């Protein structure tokens, strides 16, 4: 890597989960696979093993390129994140990411037009220093669709920035004390057709977005918003208060100071 343009338009393809790249014990500052100015590259069908979250600041796949496809990977036990996206127009598809120390997938800076689809992201835990753990930490103008997110410590999906589409995801159980199924800040989002369950807050929302046809089931609060400027249409909210017991509103409209 790091020899653009020579590494553009190339592929790394394994033979499945038996093809393993493993972080060395106590190694730090490691990107197991790095796409750095290597546009239109692909990585597929292999496993990246973080070696029980050894070291510090380690990432499974680092993408500082455009037009790349990350497809059918198994990424486990990375100290920081399974995948770090810095640039735009990339696709992460059909991968299994578990037991990351910080986030399953992290957007750094303001990459745009990335697609995150059909992935299984689970069990991120706050094993190392830094903020609470997220399944997907997303900054702006991307599509997050048809993913299964389960048991990520602080939030399953945390959206920062604007112009994002969150469509048809199955979001279940955030494992921390004050947790979020989907946390949304800023403006101009479409959030539709998601199933969100078993979190302290099913969905916390910013403003100027469309929220439609979501199922918010068995959260403490189904929907919490500090904005009066949104469209909330055709959503099903039931069994609120199920996490802590007691009486919780399915919809709570007030300022959230968090």
- Main-sheet strand order equals 1-4-7-10-13-16-19-22-25-28
User: Strand-residue fraction?
Assistant: 35-45%
* Structure summary, number of beta strands: 30
Mean pLDDT over the residues = 88
> What order do the helices and strands follow?
EEEEEEEEEEEEEEEEEEEEEEEEEEEEEE
Q: Name the shape in a single word.
A: globular
Q: What count of helical segments does DSSP give?
A: 0
Briefly note the structural class of the backbone.
Answer: mainly beta
Polypeptide structure, described:
This protein starts with 10 loop residues before the first strand and ends in a 5-residue tail after the last strand. It is globular. The protein contains no helices and 30 strands. Strands 1-4-7-10-13-16-19-22-25-28 form a 10-stranded parallel beta sheet, with no helix packed on it. Strands 2-5-8-11-14-17-20-23-26-29 form a 10-stranded parallel beta sheet, with no helix packed on it. The protein is 0% helix and 43% strand. The chain has strands at 11-13, 20-22, 31-36, 42-44, 47-49, 59-64, 69-71, 74-76, 81-85, 91-93, 96-98, 103-107, 115-117, 120-122, 134-139, 143-145, 148-150, 155-160, 165-167, 170-172, 180-184, 190-192, 195-197, 201-205, 210-212, 215-217, 221-225, 231-233, 236-238, 251-253. The protein has 258 residues and is mostly beta strands.
